[in-house]
Amino acid sequence: MKTFLIYSSFLVLASYYCCTGSLAACITVSPSSNSIQLSVNKASVGDTIYIQKGFYREHDIEIKKKLTLIGIDRPVIDGENKYQGFIISADHVSLTGLQIQNIGTSSMNDLAGIKILNASYVTVNNNRLINNTYGVYFQNATHCYVSGNIIHASATDELNSGNGIHGWKSNNLLIKDNIISGHRDGIYFEFVTASHIIHNRSFNNVRYGLHFMFSHNDTYSDNTFSDNGAGVAVMYSHGVVMLGNTFTHNWGDAAYAILLKEITDSRIENNIFIKNTVGLYMEGTTRIQVRHNVFQDNGWAMRIQASCGQCVFEENNFLGNSFDVATNGTMVMNTFNRNYWDKYDGYDLDRNGKGDVPYYPVSVYAVITEKIPTAMILYRSFLTNIMDEVEKVMPS
User: Fold this and answer.
1) How far apart are CA 259 and CA 280, in angstroms?
2) pTM
């Protein structure tokens, strides 16, 4: 509904400008040879181009001036599995209501449905990007807005595929209300700062639903990541805020709902982790706040490597996980406080809502399988049941 209202208001505003002629001219394009590129070349700064319904076999359409392009009844721009779609290198460009499809692959260049280079305040709204190597590609872009798009491909491996939304060396991007599937990574950020990823759905991607590298002070909230090779990877970054996201059915030998590697000063709060191989995997992380999350029916709720320190795990719920916490170390350098553990068998005689007997979330069998992974074949056997009962009597 929000996308429709934005789109409708935008059309009304653009039509007013065209009718009055006071601010910009209107140009109408119909399918013919290079009709979109010719119209872009003839247009003046600030003009609006209406692209009529139809099939446009055009590619590498360059936009080097402030323009608004609006598709009427979803016109199709086809790259013939060889070329890319739009290349935008001007500020204040807007693309709305288009279907851009069949963008080619190249070992030399990253070919995209919409590529934004060295530009600011570009809006990509309510488009469909189908069967493209890269969907929307940012390079040295600032203050750009991508919302309400459907971005879908059919990638089967990492080598011959690209990312749904790809950001490199950019800042202040807003990625909102998009549906992304079938790419290498649904969303990929490298050297992207001060940006927001909000209310997107990223699923069935080959590698990650969302991938951060060297990207600081970014926020992602209220997104859903499901059925990906792994959910989210956040690497070599600081100041990352992860709020209110849902991670489901990220299964596999190396599948994590969230993978944190070399991360500092970040927050993970109010997220839901359901039926993942590993809910939260942490390696080389420092000063991470993990609060008010739900870990339910995962293989491992959390795997916290010995290289992690000064992290706080507070007021989280652990329900139905095979293992609540696993680690490869013996020293405790992190803080656990006021969490709910469904495996806790202790008592609360003073009825203050806090168990009188400490709970040890790292079970002996979790330690064994961390050192000897093949021991998982005996999980839920009579032997492991005996070990669990002995551990309740002698937790040490």
Assistant:
1) 6
2) 0.86
For position 177, what pLDDT does the model report? 98
Provide the mean pLDDT of the chain.
Answer: 87
Question: Which residue, chain included where needed, has tokens 């940006």?
Answer: 195
Long-range contacts of 162-165 (CB under 8 A, 24+ apart): 162/105, 162/110, 162/111, 162/112, 162/132, 162/133, 162/134, 162/135, 163/134, 163/135, 163/187, 163/188, 163/211, 164/129, 164/134, 164/135, 164/136, 164/202, 164/205, 165/135, 165/136, 165/138
Per-residue CA distances from 261 to 214, 280, 332 (Å): 11, 11, 19
Q: Is the pLDDT of residue 242 over 80?
A: yes
Per residue in 290-307, pLDDT (tens digit) is 999 999 999 999 999 989
Question: How would DSSP label each residue in 22-63?
Answer: SS--EEEE-SSTTHHHHHHHHPPTT-EEEE-SSEE----EEE
**110 contacts: CB under 8 Å, gap ≥ 6:** 133, 134, 137, 162, 166
d(CA 112, CA 164): 9
Does the structure show a pLDDT above 80 at 346? no
E strand intervals along 345-396:
none
Rg of the Cα atoms in the chain? 25
